[in-house]
Amino acid sequence: MVKICCIGAGYVGGPTMAVIALKCPAIEVAVVDISVSRINAWNSEQLPIYEPGLDDIVKQCRGKNLFFSTDVEKHVAEADIVFVSVNTPTKTQGLGAGKAADLTYWESAARMIADVSKSDKIVVEKSTVPVKTAEAIEKILTHNSKKINFQILSNPEFLAEGTAIQDLFNPDRVLIGGRETPEGAKAIQALKDVYAHWVPVERIICTNLWSAELSKLAANAFLAQRISSVNAMSALCEATGADVTQVSHAVGKDSRIGPKFLNASVGFGGSCFQKDILNLVYICECNGLPEVANYWKQVIKVNDYQKTRFVNRVVSSMFNTVSGKKIAILGFAFKKDTGDTRETPAIDVCKGLLGDKARLSIYDPQVSEDQIQRDLSMKKFDWDHPVHLQPASPMSITQVSVVWDAYEATKDAHGICILTEWDEFKNLDYQRIYNNMQKPAFVFDGRNIADVEKLREIGFIVYSIGKPLDSWLKDLPAVA
Asked: Which residues are catalytic?
């Protein structure tokens, strides 16, 4: 029986291994992590991450050919294929601080694999890593090996949270990069055989190592660039009276462009986009390509500008101050159908409003109070370090209350900010909400999901990103 071990039981490792176990009943899959609480959660009724469809798969396979364990060394030693899916946070100090990926956890994983291995292994990069990481890992493994052969493969993930299980069941492509040697080709084939249990062979793309590593960064950079492009257009739409939804629709009908990732919003979030672009910027700078680095930097600058612009719009609309005013925040996760809050635009928007002394009442159907308080009190990039290295108990921010009902969040509020596109926010009783709010009552729709005309009929003053401005807002000075 082929044995697979995945180091790292997070958003990538857990779902990916669960699907491999489901689709390959003859393969034994172990997911290992040093975090006892995380492994206990994977073995419980309440999984540590929310992803539609994941619960059923785990319950179907767990204890049969899918195991979650803290005995890292045992499972790594026994495995034929070792996936490494550990954190690669952005460095916060030292060389490349604020841009380069911190490979501390990757390196310690590689050293541990070298130490405990007694048989040949295929080591698969599953984390998003900088180009040429495989070369560094190879050196660690070969210089520590006891005549054991290690083949390094790059197999980046292209999952979208909220649809991860569907993406794994029916991927656009599976990318496998390896050395262009007979041994490398054999390792690529071994991994290809695993995916071929359910993925059509024509969708499994094989490349050299560096192309696979760079393709992941490139894909995320291109997607983020589309979002920043449409968000830049949204500012121009507001200034001219155009409607960004109509502009996006017209642009997306061009077959060369297509409609995806053209929804204007308060900004992009998630664990990958910003981190991967910063990584790309650093690689470009290290390779003497400042013009290329500056191009990609601008994608992040526009994203930051969009969040700042949204906060400024809220404050300027409400008589230029939100001090002491209750603002309801509907949605904290970076997108619907996930509880993930990594780099969510809500963090910067909330911090901006708190900076103007607002009182926030936050509701999100999948994010806990502890997580929200943690996110609002943590320093930038700290979220990407393993849980046991993060601050143990977050400072409680007194101006923030977390509630479990949208109506409670909006009661007596001066304004509402919609920051996640949860379906339930489209179907709220906004008349009831309006009746219980301070007047004038404001809605700031950061996801363009509200029925603007209906809200205005009720009596709300509405700001929707990239849409023609409410007459109330037209008289206000343009915001930075």
From this structure: 272
Q: Give the CATH fold of the 3-199 domain.
A: Rossmann fold (3.40.50)
Alpha helices in 31-132 (DSSP H): 36-42, 54-61, 72-78, 104-116
Task: Express each pLDDT in 318-331 by its tens digit.
Answer: 999 999 999 999 99
| 73 is an annotated ligand-binding site residue | no
Angle at 202 between CA 200 and CA 205, to 5 degrees: 110
86 is in an annotated binding site: yes
> Which CATH number, 3.40.50.720, 2.60.120.380, 3.30.465.10, 3.10.129.10, labels domain 221-474?
3.40.50.720
Tell me which of 100-114, 377-391, 427-441 is least confident: 377-391
What pLDDT sits at residue 14? 95
> Residue 100 has what pLDDT?
73
Query: Is residue 128 annotated as involved in ligand binding?
Result: yes
Report if pTM > 0.70. yes
What does the block give as tokens for 470? 């409410």
Q: How far apart are alpha carbons 116 and 294 in whole angstroms?
A: 43
Find the Cα–Cα–Cα–Cα dihedral 169, 173, 176, 182, rounded to 10°.
Answer: 110
Mean pLDDT (the chain, rounded): 91
Alpha-carbon distances, residue 369 vs 363, 372, 402, 467 (angstroms): 9, 5, 6, 32
258 is annotated as contributing to ligand binding: no
What pLDDT digit, counting tens, does each position of 393-422 carry? 556 688 999 999 999 999 999 999 999 999
10 is annotated as contributing to ligand binding: yes
CB of 358 closer than 8 Å to CB of 328: no
The span from the CA of 3 to the CA of 22, in Å, is: 14
DSSP states of 26-56: TSEEEEE-S-HHHHHHHTSSS-SS--TTHHH
Supply the pLDDT for residue 431.
Answer: 98
- Express each pLDDT in 270-300 by its tens digit: 878 998 899 899 899 989 999 999 999 999 9
CA dist., res. 206 & res. 449, Å (int) = 40
Do the domains 3-199 and 221-474 sit in the same CATH topology, yes or no?
yes
Instruction: Tell whether 275 is in a known binding site.
Output: yes
Residue 127, marked binder = yes
Q: Where are the domains of the chain?
A: 3-199, 221-474
